[in-house]
């Protein structure tokens, strides 16, 4: 069932939503659950972000569903060159139509789910100074690192 904002909830009558989609890509359950229960928030300690992402945060934001929908509406239509999408020796690149922005560490420092290799379990990537890098192979691993269990 569509919610009219680019997200979709799938479930039968009386059932809890089982799938949340952004731009046609299903969010992994650990992230959808963290958004729903309010735990998808940036750590208060900036040192955690520096350790996990290897970069200095500058006004980090972890997107809620309306923000994710808004951010991805234009991102997923972007050309590769507009989002540093080409792979290189230092960058994994990104395919905007196979990625979902989930937050950022600051302006031009997006955090995304990359669905190119595993549609059911996308890896977490980040656009750092050298290009797109893998942060963790799965979102549950990022959640653990951010909130003290990794």
UniProtKB/TrEMBL annotation:
Region described as Disordered: spans on this chain: 1-20
> Superkingdom of this entry's organism?
Bacteria
What is this protein identified as? SMI1/KNR4 family protein
What is the native source organism of this protein? Streptomyces cinnabarinus
């Amino acid at each position: 069932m569509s919610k009219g904002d680019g997200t979709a909830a799938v479930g039968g009558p009386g059932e809890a939503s089982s799938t949340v989609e952004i731009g046609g890509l299903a969010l992994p359950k650990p992230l959808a659950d963290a958004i729903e229960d309010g735990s998808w928030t940036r750590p208060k300690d900036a040192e955690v972000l520096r350790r996990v992402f290897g970069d200095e945060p500058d006004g980090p934001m972890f997107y809620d569903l309306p923000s994710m929908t808004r951010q991805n509406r234009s991102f997923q239509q972007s050309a590769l060159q507009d989002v540093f999408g080409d792979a290189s020796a230092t960058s994994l690149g990104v395919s905007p139509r196979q990625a979902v922005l989930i937050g950022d560490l600051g302006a031009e420092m997006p955090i995304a789910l990359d669905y190119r290799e595993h549609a059911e379990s996308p890896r977490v990537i980040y656009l750092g100074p050298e290009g797109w890098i893998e942060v963790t192979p799965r979102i549950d691993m990022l959640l653990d690192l951010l909130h003290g269990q990794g």
